[in-house]
Amino acid sequence: MAEIAKNQLKSDSVMKTGKFPYTFRAGWFLLLLGINFLVAGYYFHIIQ
């Protein structure tokens, strides 16, 4: 029963703020940052 209450609380907090959890946002941040460095490497001819 406590597990259900915890999940309900988490769902309510996401619905109230309208933002994704920090782990999800941090994951996307790291993925996009990696792609950015990859493109920069091609641009500066570090990666060929």
Structure description:
The chain has 48 residues and is an all-alpha fold. The chain contains 2 helices and no strands. It has helices at residues 2-17, 22-43. The mean pLDDT is 82.
Largest sheet: none
Summed over residues and divided by their number, the pLDDT gives a mean of 82
* Helix and strand composition category: mainly alpha
Number of helices in the DSSP assignment: 2
- The percent range for strand residues is under 5%
State the share of residues found in helices, binned by percent.
over 70%
How many beta-strand segments? 0
- Gyration radius, to the nearest Å? 18 Å
Global shape: rod-shaped
* Oligomerization: single chain
Low-confidence segments, given as residue ranges, are: none
Fold blueprint:
Blueprint: H1 2-17, H2 22-43
Q: What is shown here, in short?
A:
The chain has helices spanning 2-17, 22-43.
Properties at a glance:
48 residues; mainly alpha; 2 helices
